[in-house]
């Protein structure tokens, strides 16, 4: 059963401005996300924009927004096929469990100046 849906769009230029400021990156992104994005060279801002959108979409799917966890506690990691998954730590994990836990589905894309993510939360039987 679907327990929450969130969607978010991020203008990539917003993230491009952050790329040169390590303290902002460390505030909003998990170290693994920063490392992955850096490996994409010119695609770093696109990668981070999609991940930022996924974090915002996660908060919307919970119905709480970003009030109860730090964005860096939500990391978008890719499996061996490139499929994104959300990895939760600390307060983000606790908030998800308080919401009822379950399965998190995430899809991200970017085109031109925008990155979009959708998060669907699904509770088990």
Q: Which band does the percent of strand residues land in?
A: 25-35%
Low-confidence parts: none
Distance between the termini: 8 Å
**Overall geometry:** globular
Q: How are helices and strands ordered from N to C?
A: EHHHHEEHEE
CATH superfamily membership: 4'-phosphopantetheinyl transferase domain
Write a structural description.
This protein is α+β, with helices and mostly antiparallel strands. The chain has one domain (2-122): Ribosomal Protein L22, Chain A (Alpha-Beta Complex), CATH 3.90.470.20. The protein is 41% helix and 30% strand. It has five helices and five strands, in the order E-H-H-H-H-E-E-H-E-E. It has helices at residues 12-19, 22-28, 31-38, 44-62, 90-98; strands at residues 2-11, 74-78, 84-88, 103-111, 114-122. The strands form two sheets. Strands 1-5-4 form a three-stranded antiparallel β-sheet. It has a two-stranded antiparallel sheet with strand order 2-3. Helix 3 runs antiparallel to helix 4 (44-62). The N and C termini lie close together (8 Å).
